[in-house]
Amino acid sequence: MKKNIINLKRTGKKNIYLPIPMLIVQSDTGNSMTPRTSLLLLLLACIICTAGCTIPFAPDNQTVHSPGTSAPQSVAKYKLTIAQPENSAKLITMDTDVYNTGEVVEFLITNEKTSDLSCTREPPSFSVRYQSGTGQWVTRMGEENPAPGNTTTLKPGKSTPPYRFVTTGWAPGRYRIVTDCGVSREILLRALPSLTPVTTPCPSIANTSPYIHVNPVSDQYADEKFTIAGTTSLAAGEELRYSIFAILPLSGNVTAAKMVSGTLRVSGGSCGTNTWSVDGLVQVPGDYFIGISNNANTVSAVKRFTILVKERTTTAATLPEKTSAPGITTG
């Protein structure tokens, strides 16, 4: 006599149960089957019940061609084109023909013809070649002469998915993208600008005596602020003394009295040449001299300059204030 007992076993998923038949078979003699036979029948029943609930795995060699995922997406921030040797280059669509080394190059093939475009591989592939110093084209990436495979046909107006490759470590120069669709396009890689500032070496200067130079002073106008500046070989921070003298209008002699005097500090420059400057204004037109020297008065320089009458649309008669110097201030 045969009895079927069905147990409900939880699968781990919510509210889903699988019936697993437990078969207990008794012979007509009343002796039950051996435990080994019962176990084999139980395993067979489980396999039969669960065979329809499993999904077979895809073959290991099954891949999806996705040219657009081989490199980061290209974002061209500039659009530059170069002359192409072949008219078919227009079938390779790109944002720009000029890239910096290390950037991502992105392109796609678009059939802009009125007839089909045949490619010797499925999906279409490409290689990149660069032009050596001798003018020869040498393969940089991809196969130089790939074996033909299944043919791909691009209908008019149709395009391939985007292709991308990274140019990190590539030398600057001219490169050519060659596709198995019979079209190619050339690009130009340029070196990245140097992030390190270029420093010009200081010229070699023979040992010279310390000096102070006064830059040429153009004609200035009365009551207008101007700057007198110059260069010196004296060290930055060293104190200089300056004085301004007036030239007597009739005799042309320099007055013995200083009109104004003061001190200033040397500012740092480059290659051993430092700078100095002083700002001021002169109220009285005429010719003047500025004399400047170090504290020891062993290094000095003199320069003449002229103060012109300031042109005014209206004049007002005002009495000048009594001062010890004829209207010269510096600071």
- Report Rg: 46 Å
**Domain unit count:** 3
CATH architecture classification of the largest domain: Sandwich
The share of residues in extended strands comes to 35-45%
Return the CATH class of the largest domain.
Answer: Mainly Beta
Give the SSE map.
Blueprint: E1 2-10, E2 17-25, H1 35-50, E3 92-94, E4 98-100, E5 104-109, E6 117-119, E7 126-131, E8 137-141, E9 152-154, E10 163-166, E11 173-179, E12 184-190, E13 212-214, E14 220-221, E15 226-232, E16 239-246, E17 260-265, E18 267-270, E19 273-282, E20 286-294, E21 300-308, E22 328-330
Parallel strand pairs: 4-12, 14-21
Antiparallel strand pairs: 1-2, 3-5, 5-10, 6-9, 7-8, 7-11, 11-12, 13-15, 15-19, 16-17, 16-20, 18-19, 19-22, 20-21
Explain what the structure shows.
With 331 residues, the protein is mainly beta. It has 3 domains: 2-50, no CATH class; 68-190, Immunoglobulin-like (Sandwich); 212-311 and 326-330, Sandwich (Immunoglobulin-like), CATH 2.60.40. Helices cover 5% and strands 38% of the residues. It has 1 helix and 22 strands. It has a 5-stranded mixed β-sheet with strand order 4-12-11-7-8, with no helix packed on it.
Short description:
The chain is mainly beta and 331 residues long.
Question: Which tags fit this structure?
Answer:
22 strands; 331 residues; mainly beta; 5% helix; single chain; elongated; 3 domains; Immunoglobulin-like; 1 helix; five-stranded mixed beta sheet; 38% strand; five-stranded antiparallel beta sheet; disordered N terminus
